[in-house]
Amino acid sequence: MQERPLDPSLKLLLDALALAPSNAPLRLHVATAMEKAGQHAAARPHFDQLADDPAHGVDALLGGARCALAMHDEDGALARANKLLARVPEHAVALLLRARVREKRREHREARADYERAVSLDPALADTQFWDALLPRSPEPEAPAGNADEKPRDPDAITFQDVGGLDDLKERVRMKIVHPFKNPELFKAFKKRTGGGILLYGPPGCGKTFLARAIAGECGAHFNAVGLHEVLEMWIGNSEQKLHAVFDDARRRAPSVLFFDEVDALGLQRAKLVTGAMRGVITQFLSELDGFQGRNERVLVIGATNTPWDLDPAFRRPGRFDQVLFVPPPDTPARAQILKLKLEGRPQTAVDVDRVAGQTEGWSGADLEHLVESAAEIALAKSLAKGGVEPITQAMVDQARAKLRPTTREWFSTARNYAQFSNEAGQYDDIAEYMRRHKLDK
Ligand SMILES: Nc1ncnc2c1ncn2[C@@H]1O[C@H](COP(=O)(O)OP(=O)(O)OP(=O)(O)O)[C@@H](O)[C@H]1O
Ligand SMILES: [Mg+2]
């Protein structure tokens, strides 16, 4: 059977393994990843190499047996399953696997015995269809098993393809967030720490929330957003339980992204807080965050804020929000994309989004949205006056633009103070750099 070429992340893993051939957990991970990718022939030797490993031998034998079964090598599968069961006689999954191998070998009686023992050890393994197949005269299964355990794709999921421009930011996010999230073992092999939360900050309306959703999409993770009102509710009674439930829920849906919008509401500098109740929420929040550290929870915590300087420094400690990313105002390609998205589905003729993008330096995504809304209002008024649909034209967009002002300048005038006077740890270098490049620093 022809096997597909290696995908890039598998190739990375193999390269890492070549450099650390005695790294048993890494080898097991490589083998499992290959198996998942359907590369059974390539995976099997890696599993076999670990068969006698004291810590990983059982998993390796099981993997090797699965691969052999997938390759229709029933003898090979049986040998590995037997070796495993000699070591761990009560291994339910191995028993079930051996049942499947024996079914293929038409040894139905032995297969039934293995199956019954497996299910008595672990009732969750019950598979009535398989059991039916083992019965002397097996009836045809009535309904196909379907993909009941396959997670449904979120129809609203977006990825970096939906995010216009911002190529530098996307590249940083890929390197620092998406790859570590998808390949934790690889990063461990290089002794690079993974985990910890991400803080997105920047002027309002510039795509922090949008980017957080796209990161979840890139990671193939569920997106759980916790909004400001929910955070505020947490302040009022039962906060600890509510917070815990939020983190717990994210764990259950793993892999998932847990997004705290306007996290500054939660992480206001303790000095600025008046009531002890709020302090309790913060403490709880930080300890939930710390709980993720070191454990492979497959939950990425992302916070967003317009006022990073209001955030309690305790939030920035390692393992908490230790990656801080500046989300700048949309660049020209991003503005064109936003305009295109916002105009989509509205009656219009020949609006040159690239031209408008070139004229709206410093405008946020929300400002551009406002611009399109205003142009649509003009078109609507004309349509009503005329009694027929008048599409949005370039002239209407220009007319609306003349009446509006971008809102990010104001944010930068506040940010400038922090970038110039409170930047000891370099945490606002990105702002300073952006302002220099866009001549906003004067
Ligand atoms: N790079 C981009 N590509 C496509 N759309 C974008 C981009 N940046 C922003 N947008 C759009 O702009 C709008 C505002 O973005 P978003 O709500 O994510 O901003 P925000 O930074 O979270 O704002 P706030 O600080 O007010 O919460 C959204 O409707 C989003 O669709
Ligand atoms: Mg937002």
Give structural notes:
The protein has about 450 residues and is α/β, with parallel strands linked by helices. It folds into 4 domains: about 10-135, Serine Threonine Protein Phosphatase 5, Tetratricopeptide repeat (Alpha Horseshoe), CATH 1.25.40; about 160-325, 3-Layer(aba) Sandwich (Rossmann fold), CATH 3.40.50.300; about 330-405, Helicase, Ruva Protein, domain 3 (Orthogonal Bundle), CATH 1.10.8.60; about 410-435, no CATH class. The protein contains 20 helices and 5 strands. Helix 1 packs antiparallel against helix 2 (about 25-35) and helix 6 (about 90-105) runs antiparallel to helix 7. Bound molecules: adenosine-5'-triphosphate and magnesium ion. Adenosine-5'-triphosphate (ATP) binds near residues 330, 366 and 369.
Which key terms come to mind for this protein?
4 domains; binds magnesium ion; 5 strands; 442 residues; Serine Threonine Protein Phosphatase 5, Tetratricopeptide repeat; 5-stranded parallel beta sheet; Rossmann fold; Helicase, Ruva Protein, domain 3; binds adenosine-5'-triphosphate; single chain; alpha/beta
Describe the structure concisely.
This protein has 442 residues and is an alpha/beta fold. Helices cover 55% and strands 6% of the residues. It has 4 domains: 8-134, Serine Threonine Protein Phosphatase 5, Tetratricopeptide repeat, CATH 1.25.40.10; 160-326, P-loop containing nucleotide triphosphate hydrolases (Rossmann fold, 3-Layer(aba) Sandwich), CATH 3.40.50.300; 332-403, Helicase, Ruva Protein, domain 3, CATH 1.10.8.60; 408-437, no CATH class.
